[in-house]
Design a protein that fits this description.
The complex is a heterodimer. Chain A is an all-beta fold. Chain A has strands at about 5, 10-15, 20-25, 30-35, 45-50, 65-70, 75-80, 90-95, 100-105, 105-110. By secondary structure, chain B is mostly beta strands. Helices cover about 0% and strands about 60% of the residues of chain B. In chain B, strands 2, 4, 5, 9, 10 and 11 form a six-stranded mixed beta sheet that branches. A five-stranded antiparallel beta sheet of chain B has the order 1-3-8-7-6, with no helix packed on it. The chains are: A mainly beta, B mainly beta.
């Protein structure tokens, strides 16, 4: 079946602009994660959604970052007033349970 | 502090040779330990998953071992192929919060012909 998809695959934006990154999880998966992967670094947890529960936002680095998950399916990660240090690959993962993760291909964000 | 450390940071081997990647962790308690393969420009794909009671798990030419006493894991790749060139990431999940994962920074493997 279809895996996790993310769009766009690449995004180049100017410093100060807002960006929206989209994640389409595997159908039926209740758990959804966003991670950030900077060059040569490990994955950094950003936010976790599980069903209708309040999301775990403990990994969001600043209030410029926000995410929502509509209808328990598609999720959007929004970064406002982007900075150069926001440049990274943003990975989304979904799972049937909180301990199972299937990753999407990621969105490479470049802030110029 | 819960951490996952991997070594070596990078590795070059010739096609057909074997190699072993290391993962040391301090996460305690932990629920399970996974090894992922991440091809360039792709998301990580799970290779193996082990709970604290398991000490070995195989997936084709990939064999993972786990010593929960010393908090060490290894991933052994047998008869390497060019397609094994990728980053290999060790991930440990928290024993209290199943949605909490600790990621190593990965070992970048380059298999040369």
């Amino acid at each position: 079946g279809a895996g996790v998809s993310q769009s766009p695959s690449n995004k180049v934006t100017e410093k100060g602009k807002d960006v929206e990154l989209r994640c389409d999880p595997i159908s039926g998966h209740t758990a959804l994660y966003w991670y950030r992967q900077s060059l040569g670094q490990g994955l950094e947890f950003l936010i976790y959604f599980q069903g209708n529960s309040a999301p775990d936002k403990s990994g969001l680095p600043s209030d410029r970052f926000s995410a929502e998950r509509t209808g328990g399916s598609v999720s959007t990660l929004t970064i406002q007033r982007t900075q150069q240090e926001d440049s990274a690959v943003y990975l989304c993962a979904s799972g049937p349970y909180s301990y199972e993760q299937y990753f999407g291909p990621g969105t490479r964000l470049t802030v110029t | 502090k819960n951490q996952v450390e991997q070594s070596p940071q990078s590795l070059i081997i010739l096609e057909g040779k074997n190699c072993t990647l290391q993962c040391n962790y301090t996460v305690s308690p932990f629920s399970n330990l996974r090894w992922y393969k991440q091809d360039t420009g792709r998301g990580p794909v799970s290779l193996t998953i082990m709970t604290f009671s398991e000490n070995t798990k195989s997936n084709g030419r990939y064999t993972a071992t786990l010593d929960a006493d010393t908090k060490q894991s290894s991933l052994h790749i047998t008869a390497s192929q060019l397609s094994d060139s990728a980053s290999y990431i060790c991930v440990v999940s928290d024993g209290y919060n199943f949605n909490k994962f600790y990621f190593g920074s990965g070992t970048k493997l380059n298999v040369k012909p």
